[in-house]
Prior knowledge:
Layout: H1 2-39, E1 52-56, E2 62-69, E3 72-78, E4 84-90, E5 94-100, E6 106-113, E7 116-122, E8 128-135, E9 138-144, E10 150-154
Antiparallel strand pairs: 1-2, 2-3, 3-4, 4-5, 5-6, 6-7, 7-8, 8-9, 9-10
Amino acid sequence: MGEDLQSLSRRIKRLEEENFKLRVVLLFVLLGVFALGFLGFVRWNREIVAERFVLVDSLGNARATLSSAPEGPVLAFLGPDGNMRMAMVLTEDMAGIALCDTHGVPRMGIALVEEIAGIAFGDPGGSLRMGMALAEGEPVIGFYDAQGNLIRQLP
């Protein structure tokens, strides 16, 4: 029983020493954080101002961008290969979304231009092949050849 008390006493003493070491380390960490904040290295801003933001993945590859063009803001999402897969654009008279294939070619677009709402579909080469719109309350569907020439319109 005496050995058990001695063993327990040694363990308690070792735990107290480790606890003291941890407190010292914590004190230095807190002092370091305070010093960095006091010296101005750590700033807590509520606003970040820039003309362009790039979101990267864990490998450093760009996966999204938010930029300000002269016409208006553009939010673009990129695939793993860097090709644009989706973009949202806002200008003075237009709001639109473009969806692109894996090669970055725009294949579908949705837009509201002034009072006209429309959807456009493109071929693998990026040429407009079909469009649907609602203009002045009237629906219109257009079909286009590979060169972008209107070949049929409904109604």
